[in-house]
């Protein structure tokens, strides 16, 4: 039975680096999609949505991939601290930016909320 658990440990050591690489690659692709969305979307609100949602998940996937490839516990704890910091601050900062833009009167590209047609803007 002890040999079985030793083999599982060896299998995990063999498997964690490719899994970490795939997670880092997926996170990088999400960040590229986010950059394309920021360039292509028409107004502030949609651009910020593209940047905040995909960058948060892209950074999370990159950090998870790096955690899978971490050589020791100290690196893993540091990556976990970075993950928690980004997970808490990125959505909060995006919300603060959108709230400030809304309070300042910035309207979406489609026009003011409640207008039947974009031409009805007064």
Provide the descriptors you would attach to this structure in a database record.
122 residues, mainly alpha, elongated
In percent, how helical is the residue content? over 70%
Give the biggest sheet: none
Total DSSP helices = 3
Using the CA coordinates, give the radius of gyration. 21 Å
N-to-C SSE string, H for helix and E for strand: HHH
Low-confidence stretches: none
Coarse shape:
elongated
Quick description:
By secondary structure, this protein is mostly helical. Helices cover 78% and strands 0% of the residues. The chain has one domain (2-107).
Commentary on this structure:
With 122 residues, the chain is mainly alpha-helical. The protein has one domain. Helix content is 78%, strand content 0%. It is built from 3 helices and no strands. The chain has helices at 2-40, 44-68, 73-103. Helix 1 packs antiparallel against helix 2 (44-68). The radius of gyration is 21 Å and the shape is elongated. The mean pLDDT is 87.
